[in-house]
């Protein structure tokens, strides 16, 4: 199969970058940008001159997967479909389409939105005719569909006094930008209530101005979840840059557990269309399932934390909720307009429910072997009031040298309750013991003194979800030395955390 002849795979194969996205003498990221998107000014309002729209607006009911179609400018269809003007409206906007049919996740999300007695109208915006095209053409069509959604919402407002502030658009991939255009095209000064972008599409949108993509200005509140921003040939399937008031980057936004993302492009080359369903769909669509998860598991809402980058987050340095530094991922987010986009990070499991519990561990090591850097690995076991977590591996990103505090992040799949005891083990082996003995013969010390090792006096812990800070001290005050293959027990002691965070 010629990938370039098949819609959508065009932006994933090297030869297609050249053929589709790159003009002679231009880089892939700079050609076909504004040309493909079109200009915002070229879309003029046409609703007064037409009686129908290309987009199909299907009101979701529990009885059928087809939904009940509401026809633009036909008030009787609102009654026929039992649209309730006193309830909020959530509209699901799908993305670019490979096969021209509505994907299963759409119905799962619609059902989840209606679950647990949520009193809302759920409409599916079906723009398959315009989405089932070559990717650049589908990109070009996003403005037109955004205009149609804006027209539809204005019609609701004018005909039945349904306020746009009660509208929540949920757009996936290209649908995220469609939602953004709908928000920017709607007339008047009042904005749509909320837009959620689920891994907004990257190619032909990355680096564009706010008027040419989803942006915080498109609604009273905008949130986005980025799950597939791994770059290839300078572009990624999902947009990497912030596009919302709160931008969530689960697991850094590039890799999602269980998706085997490193092999994605090989899979596409080998399996063709089934390759994209096996790999790209997993990471890209994870944004959708994270959102559905937030609807289905009220007791397991995932918390994300403001941080500069994933490397800093992986050290556990960003687990603060002070001054709105954290927020809830998904439907139940705390809506707050910010002057600047805020990037939030979190870890998740590979499957639903995705929630994990984040902990920062700060351990102060003293390496008694002067001038000798060691690179041990450790494991840690936690005892909580509800459950235990055993043999969690810890690998330091740098060796232990001298007198220094190390910080790292640990995540747990289950809620262990309040932490009451820690067992910390140096995962030494026979080889380590031999090296240690050799070091001791090379570096002499006074007769009768203890052999040099690592000194670990305290372990400081911060629980992200509860914001609780704890200090643990060595159970044996006289024996604070740690050697290969040895395990030490630490118990709660005086809280020595600084009261004020930087």
Automatic annotation (TrEMBL):
It is found in: Secreted. The keyword Lipoprotein does not apply. It catalyses: 1,2,3-tri-(9Z-octadecenoyl)-glycerol + H2O = di-(9Z)-octadecenoylglycerol + (9Z)-octadecenoate + H(+); 1,2-dihexadecanoyl-sn-glycero-3-phosphocholine + H2O = hexadecanoyl-sn-glycero-3-phosphocholine + hexadecanoate + H(+); 1-(9Z-octadecenoyl)-sn-glycero-3-phospho-L-serine + H2O = sn-glycero-3-phospho-L-serine + (9Z)-octadecenoate + H(+); 1,3-di-(9Z-octadecenoyl)-glycerol + H2O = 3-(9Z-octadecenoyl)-sn-glycerol + (9Z)-octadecenoate + H(+). Keywords: Calcium, Glycoprotein, HDL, Heparin-binding, Hydrolase, Lipid degradation, Lipid metabolism, Metal-binding, Secreted, Signal. SUPFAM superfamilies: alpha/beta-Hydrolases, Lipase/lipooxygenase domain (PLAT/LH2 domain). One of its GO terms (cellular component) is high-density lipoprotein particle. GO terms for molecular function: apolipoprotein binding; heparin binding; lipoprotein lipase activity; metal ion binding; phosphatidylcholine lysophospholipase activity; phospholipase A1 activity. Homodimer. This is Hepatic triacylglycerol lipase.
